[in-house]
Amino acid sequence: MIFNIEKRRFRRDGKLRLTRCYYLRYRLENMLVDRWKSLAVTDKVVAEKRAREFIQEKEREAAGILEPKIIRDAAHLPLVDHLKDYEADLVKRGRAGRGGRGARLLKSRVLRLMKECGWSLPGNVTADSFISWRSRESLGARTLNHYLQGMVSFLNWLERVGRIKANPLKFVGKVDERGQKKRVRRAFTDEELRRLIAGSGRRGIVYFTAARTGLRQEELRQLKWGEVKLEARIPHMIVRAETAKNKKQEAVCLVPEIVEALKMYRPANWSGTDSVFPNGIPRASRLKVDGERNDIEYQDKEGRYADFHALRYTWATFLQKNGVGQRIAMKLMRHSDIKLTSKVYTDETQLPVYDSIKDLPRLGVCTQIRAQIFGLDGQNGSRADASGEGMEAREMPENGGDGRGLSEPVAEKELERAKGFEPSTFTLAR
Predict the structure, then answer these.
(1) Where do the domains of the chain lie?
(2) Which of 14, 82, 95, 270 is the most exposed place for a label (fewest CB within 10 A)?
(3) pLDDT > 80? residue 399
(4) What own/partner pairs with CB < 8 Å and gap ≥ 24 does 278-286 have?
(5) Average of per-residue pLDDT across 243-266
């Protein structure tokens, strides 16, 4: 180990000079090069005392007797201050979600946990206190898992930057979400959408745009007129990467009806930097009120919701109902998995299932089936009439019959009926 107290040399105006204060030059066992630490004093005796204290602290840290200084300092800093640093880091790294909504939601959840679990310092956070809080709550399984996930991500960040030694919630298990009731959405019917647009005033164009483009709330909120290409050969909107959920810039083709509506809505003195919807995007509570005023159930009998995100379901269902191929619908929805488009976002209750099968080609066997049914139940004389005297002739022993009275296939069917079995339909196979 190297342990020297000296003044550092530096060059100024071509002359070699010494620093005013003393420095500690040291190298511990696990260090490859020498390091310098300012002792910030001009008295060598005081400098030696500070240097000994510093080296003693480092040796204790290396031996595991003492926690590193950064952890000791962080332990006395309130969790609220750590949370502010974490939120700022998320924003700087572009991980705060669209419009910062993700970071705000995470912050609100962590703050609630801190308040209700009594966590004021990092050392107060324990697995037992979280599990106790979770057992008292009546929130849904998915929501409880979101609270756990948010707190774990915050604590993981504290561990990565060296503010805590280990994440105390690292091994806390999630609540099983299988079989738990989740928020299920439905698509608006065409008639409901007409009433909603017509009866919602200036918000109608927002609902119409969402239902015919599939854009999400935050994407609509940040949409600019310069990104809406209504006069292009192929009219489209550009969803910027910073506003998109998947962080990819994509063009969304527009149906002619929404192009006409947006042209009428666009102001005469518009600018490319102007927001398309300067009055904002209605929240779910506002849509609920607009829906009730126009006789639209916010939650139907099956428990499905018609909220703002349901307008995106409406767009996917509209495409499927009108015969748009699944791969094209997936592109228009900007999904990475076709299952999301066809299974999650398509409202199957609105698909024309019967209309799709009612005109399929017929096989033409109904007459044969009818003849077999009525000919085998023993109560319809049409079979006997159709056979005529030929049947009587076969029943006579003297006409070359074997004396059994019925032909072998018919006797076999009669035997099946006597035993209580349904008659075989092998005749169709033949």
Answers:
(1) 2-66, 74-160, 190-354, 366-429
(2) 14
(3) no
(4) 279/202, 280/221, 281/206, 281/217, 281/220, 281/221, 281/308, 282/203, 282/206, 282/207, 282/308, 283/308, 284/308, 286/203
(5) 93
Tell me the helix, strand and coil percentages in the chain, rounded to 5.
50, 10, 40
* pLDDT score of 1: 67
Q: Which fold has domain 190-354?
A: hpI Integrase; Chain A (1.10.443)
Rounded to 10 deg, the angle between the 101-117 and 127-136 helix axes is 100
pLDDT for 155 equals 96
Counting Cβ atoms within 10 Å, is residue 310 exposed (0-12), middle (13-18) or buried (19+)? Answer: buried
Supply 106's token pair: 């995470």
* Cα separation values, 80 from 83, 107, 134, 145, 320, Å: 5, 10, 21, 22, 49
Beta bridge partners of 4: 25
- Average pLDDT over the chain reads 85
DSSP string of 233-302?
A: SS-EEEE-TTTSTTS--EEEE--HHHHHHHHHHS-TT--TTSBS-TT----HHHHHHHHHHTT--SB-TT
Looking at residue 400, what is its pLDDT? 45
Q: Answer left, alpha or beta for residue 289, where phi above 0 means left and psi between -120 and 50 means alpha.
A: alpha
Residue labelled with tokens 């066992």: 29
Percent above pLDDT 70 for the chain: 86
In b/e form, how buried is each residue of 233-253, taking b as 16+ CB within 10 angstroms? eebbbbbeeebbeeeeeeebe
> What is the tens place of the pLDDT at every residue in 197-236?
999 999 999 999 999 999 999 999 999 999 999 999 999 9
Rounded distance between C-alpha atoms, residue 344 and residue 317, angstroms? 10
Q: Give the amino acid at 357.
A: I
d(C-alpha 254, C-alpha 231), whole Å: 11
| Residue recorded with tokens 């502010």 | 84
Q: Are 61 and 71 in contact (CB under 8 A)?
A: no
Q: How confident is the model at residue 423 (pLDDT cuts 50, 70, 90)?
A: very low
For the residues 106-126, what does the mean pLDDT come to?
95
Kindly state the greatest CA–CA separation across the chain: 144
Q: Is 403 helix (H, G, I), strand (E, B) or coil?
A: coil
Give yes or no for residue 188 having a pLDDT over 50: yes
Mean predicted confidence (pLDDT) in 240-249: 88
